[in-house]
Specification:
This protein is an alpha/beta fold. The protein is built from nine helices and 14 strands.
């Protein structure tokens, strides 16, 4: 195996940045800003104190098992360690200017060790080699430190079944959570509201994507997203789906309103224990008196304002046309009014003998619901 040493750096410097013949090793190392050491079979890192101006370090596709001895590069901004054998994120707190960390394809179980890195805005920690049945764990202290700075996060392929832990990363703009075990659409609905700046989202390869109208619902829920599952969202499609959502909400509101009025009406009606029994209503006493007084007043007015023609037809008195019933005997007219109230009284008497289970008096008078509050009310049993 190979160690990261000064000799390795001087021998493998890039073509555009090779050591000049008249340049000493310290001079050469001090002016390096980018170091390309990918695919060199490196398994261990040594400190290179002279590389103080190093800002980008490429160490991907090696055999590194432990992150160490990077204190020599306090100005390091980009660190590429993907596809190694790193088991833990450690010894990174000295890299206070680090903005990009690529650690995908390793064996990291916990996202930790980044408590002192305040400017990290891109983190690639995808496809970790985890034991069967385990998933990537997020250290709350690290997440708390990344709330303000992190904008790009790749956590794909880590057996995640929830994203609630990263809901606090409110400045996320690009999130890749593909090839996990996400399956809760309600949770995603809540989380999308936590990421108001998100414009790129990748959830492909999750069971969530198999749900009905998955893509349409995500587009409607997150109007800021421009790219979903590596496919650009066209503005015409977005507008169509937003109109569809509005029409659906209007329909839902109308349905709920109708259900509310229907339930309110049913709440006022007595329960039906016997399907053969028709629920009806009792006329209030004051309304009964009003009808009687009105009927008698009309009858007196009719007798005083209209001439009564006496006629001997089977010894019965007739009234002139103009009454409600036309040419009818007076006693027939009176009998119609009396029969109405007599029938109701008889039914009330019958109900007193055979009361309904709920203690509500019923009469066979049928009216439309809009008029129930005017003429008829529920009368509790005395």
């Amino acid at each position: 195996m190979v160690r990261l040493t000064v000799d390795l750096i001087t021998k493998n410097g890039p073509g555009h940045n090779k050591r000049r013949p008249d340049e000493t090793v310290p001079q050469y190392l001090s002016r390096l800003t980018h170091l390309y050491l990918q695919e060199k079979s490196i398994d261990k890192l040594d400190a290179i104190p002279l590389c103080k101006n190093l800002s980008v370090l490429y160490l991907y596709d090696n055999f590194i098992e432990k992150i160490e001895n990077l204190e020599f590069a306090p100005k390091l901004e980009h660190l590429y360690l993907q596809n190694n054998q790193v088991r833990r994120l450690e010894n990174l707190n000295s890299l206070t200017k680090l903005t990009k960390l690529y650690i995908g394809g390793n064996c990291v179980k916990v996202l930790e060790g980044l408590e002192n890195i305040e400017y990290l805005n891109e983190l690639q920690i995808d496809n970790q080699e985890l034991p069967s049945g385990e998933k990537l764990i997020f250290d709350p202290r690290t997440l708390s430190n990344l709330v303000q700075s992190l904008t790009v996060l790749n956590i794909s392929g880590n057996n995640l079944d929830t994203l609630t832990e990263i809901g606090s990363l409110r400045n996320l703009q690009d999130l890749n959570a593909s090839n996990n075990l996400l399956n809760d659409m309600k949770e995603m609905t809540i989380l999308l509201k936590c990421w108001p700046h998100l414009f790129k989202l990748n959830l492909s390869g999750n069971p969530l994507c198999q749900k009905n109208k998955y893509r349409e619902r995500i587009i409607v829920l997150a109007p800021n997203i421009q790219i979903l599952d590596e496919k650009e969202i066209k503005e015409l499609s977005r507008q169509f789906l937003q109109n569809w959502k509005m029409s659906k909400e209007v329909y839902k509101h109308r349905t709920e309103s109708n259900e509310f009025h229907s339930e309110s009406l049913h709440a006022e009606l007595p329960p039906i224990n016997n399907m053969n029994q028709m629920p009806t209503y009792v006329m209030p006493e004051h309304r009964r008196k009003q009808l009687i007084s009105s009927g008698l007043a009309k009858h007196r007015s009719f007798l005083s304002g209209k001439a009564v023609k006496a006629s001997s037809l089977n010894n019965k008195t007739m009234v002139e046309p103009g009454s409600r019933y036309g040419m009818q005997p007076i006693h027939v007219y009176k009998n119609r009014i009396n029969h109405f109230f007599t029938s109701e009284n008889n039914l009330l008497l019958k109900q007193q003998q055979h009361p309904s289970p709920n203690g509500i008096h019923l009469t066979p008078i049928q009216r439309k619901p809009t008029y129930l509050h005017e003429d008829f009310v529920l009368s509790p049993k005395d």
